[in-house]
Amino acid sequence: MEIGSPKPVKVYAPEHWVLGAKEISYKFNGSPIVGTFDEKFVLKSESGEILKNVPYVITNKVTGEQIRGITDDEGGTVRVWTESEEEVEMGVDFVRVFSKSSKDKE
Questions:
Q1: Residue 57: how many CB atoms within 10 A of its CB?
Q2: Cα–Cα distances in Å, from 48 out to 4, 42, 43, 73, 75?
Q3: What is the arrangement of strands in the sheet containing 66-70, beginning at the earlier edge strand?
Q4: pLDDT tens digits for 38-93?
Q5: Cα–Cα distance between 37 and 47 in angstroms, integer?
Q6: 95 — phi, psi (to 5°)?
Q7: Could you state, in order of their start, the residue ranges of all structural domains in the chain?
Q8: Residue 102 above 60 pLDDT?
Q9: Are the C-beta atoms of residues 80 and 26 closer than 8 Å to each other?
Q10: I need a surface site. Which of 6, 49, 63, 104 has the fewest CB within 10 A?
Q11: How much is the average pLDDT of 87-106?
Q12: What contacts 34, CB < 8 A, 6 or more positions away?
């Protein structure tokens, strides 16, 4: 049996296995529980080229919470969730870009 739910599920059975999620997502309070609103970004250059392996930061403009990561091979970020409609902003994490490039020069 496969159960899908946007909320935690308790299962009582004599034998059971617990498997992880099919997709890792982030809620801004740090919990991977699915909220009502979600967004996944794709980072592209001005010419439309997909930017893979680029450090990014997603900021919740309401709470100030941030999620940092590196874009995947399709230029995508992790999916983020909020329980209500909130304004979020995504951009290149220049702090990590510059700190990485300065380490490369050493």
A1: 17
A2: 35, 10, 9, 15, 11
A3: 66-70, 55-60, 88-92
A4: 888 898 888 889 988 999 988 888 888 888 899 999 999 988 877 788 888 888 88
A5: 29
A6: -60, -45
A7: 25-105
A8: no
A9: yes
A10: 104
A11: 69
A12: 6, 7, 25, 27, 81
Looking up tokens 């930061």, which residue turns up?
57
Determine the residue type at 74: E
What tokens were used for 4?
Answer: 């899908």
Diameter of the chain measured on Cα atoms: 58
What sign for the dihedral angle of Cα 72, 77, 78, 79?
A: negative
Type of residue numbered 18: V
Tokens of residue 11, six digits: 């299962």
Q: According to the model, what pLDDT value does residue 46 have?
A: 86
- 63-70 contact pairs (CB < 8 A, 24+): 63/28, 65/28, 65/29, 67/26, 67/28, 68/93, 68/96
pLDDT band for position 34 (cuts 50, 70, 90):
low
Q: How far apart are CA 71 and CA 44, in angstroms?
A: 10
Q: Do residues 34 and 25 touch, judged by C-beta distance below 8 A?
A: yes
